[in-house]
Amino acid sequence: MEECGAFGQRYAREFDVKWFHGGASSSEPLMGSADIQSLADLRNSFVFIRDIELAPFTIKNVVSMAVTTLLPVAPLLLTMFSAEQLIERVLKVLL
Fold first, then answer.
1. What are the CA-CA distances from residue 81 to residues 67, 69, 93 (Å)?
2. pLDDT (tens digit per residue) in 6-29
3. Are residues 34 and 14 in the same domain?
4. Cα separations (Å) of 5 from 39, 42, 43, 46, 47?
């Protein structure tokens, strides 16, 4: 990730110098330039690498599965405990 970021920064600096600070020759067309497409490709690659997760699931997935699993049990729990007691117990577990 660090190497990819450093490479991207170097490419972006060189792109900036070339296209915004007079580094490109006047005969080089801006439209259809491979530089712009390469910059976009580099950004897409960086976003893909950045979004790779260490685990195949996130906390959102775990919470969603827990809620989906426990939801059918909720009516039974409400016959055994009051809503306040359930909320109190859930908060104790979470905190």
1. 18, 19, 16
2. 888 898 888 888 878 877 776 777
3. yes
4. 13, 10, 10, 7, 10
What domain range includes position 88? 59-94
Q: Which two tokens stand for residue 51?
A: 């979004």
Residue that has been written with the tokens 């909320």 in this structure: 87
pLDDT per position as a tens digit, 51-61? 887 778 888 88
Number of domains composing the chain? 2
Distance (Å, whole) CA 38 – CA 43: 9
Residues 45 and 66 in one domain: no
Same domain, 45 and 14: yes
